[in-house]
Amino acid sequence: xxxxxxxxxxxxxxxxxxxxxxxxxxxxxxxxxxxxxxxxxxxxxxxxxxxxxxxxxxxxxxxxxxxxxxxxxxxxxxxxxxxxxxxxxxxxxxxxxxxxxxxxxxxxxxxxxxxxxxxxxxxxxxxxxxxxxxxxxxxxxxxxxxxxxxxxxxxxxxxxxxxxxxxxxxxxxxxxxxxxxxxxxxxxxxxxxxxxxxxxxxxxxxxxxxxxxxxxxxxxxxxxxxxxxxxxx
Length: 233
Description:
alpha+beta; 434 Repressor (Amino-terminal Domain); Pnp Oxidase, Chain A; 2 domains; disordered N terminus
């Protein structure tokens, strides 16, 4: 029987300090909402299953409050997951430790879907072949149209192999929901040599390498091919 909807004494945020530890907590409201929708639950249904008031659940999904430990445990049970996963507690560990979804589906993405996924920019991995074998390096990137843009320093290993074919991979994982996607771009990594284009990219591309330093070599990969896959249940 679904519990009677209504607020409980431990619905409020007064003991939020007792939440499970998380190295870099994820977006709890978005995780709650996404998991609820994947299970095809309305907010009212989830509130009933977890024994929480509907307004309180609405505030949680809207990021206005943090749940108590007791409320978080009930939400996790109702959503068939764990408190740690809802709070992003595994984000400091290597990805993929949560395992696959119950009945995983591997979906091939269209090129348009691939571009939509990588268009916000962020961190990707560029792969290229050196005299000593293949190398894969993480870089901060942005998209300029359909070209991948990132920066490096003139004395790096990567700068020494520009003009060659390269792979560029971006992925996204949600440990709480055991969902993920990956996109692979293949093309030629070339240095942007036009001063006018470099100035344009400086103003509009917004590529800010975390590594710091004078990384003033702009690199472009124009995709010859783009493919992607998504895993979901």
